[in-house]
Amino acid sequence: MTKTITFAILHFSVAFTVTYLLTGSVIIGGAIALIEPAINTVVFYFHEKVWKGIESRNALQSAAA
Questions:
Q1: Confidence (pLDDT) at 18
Q2: What distance in Å separates the CA atoms of residue 60 and residue 51, rounded to the nearest whole number?
Q3: Domain coordinates of the chain in residue numbers?
Q4: Which residues contact 33 (CB under 8 A, 6 or more apart)?
Q5: Measuring CA to CA, how many Å separate 47 from each of 20, 23, 39, 40, 44?
Q6: What is the maximum alpha-carbon separation in the chain?
Q7: How many Å apart are CA 17 and CA 60, to the nearest integer?
Q8: Closest of 16, 48, 49 to residue 34, by C-alpha
Q9: DSSP per residue over 15-54, as a string?
Q10: What's the pLDDT tens digit per position in 20-58?
C-alpha cells in the first residue's frame, strides 16, 4: 500500500508540474493533477483485468500443449 500511495503522490506531482509549466496556471495545474490521475487509475484497473485474462489464457494453452 505504501508503494501505491507514493506512486499516487508522484503521479499528482508530475501532472501538476507539467500542466503548470505549459499553462502557467496553478488552478489548471491543480485541476489536471486531480482529474488525470483519477481517470488514469480507473483505466489502469481495466487494463490489468484484460492482461490477467490474456495471461490466464496463455497459461492454459501452455498447460494443454
A1: 95
A2: 14
A3: 2-64
A4: 12, 13, 15, 16, 19
A5: 28, 30, 12, 10, 5
A6: 58
A7: 44
A8: 16
A9: HHHHHHHHH--HHHHHHHHHHHHHHHHHHHHHHHHHHHHH
A10: 999 999 999 999 999 988 888 888 889 999 999 999 999
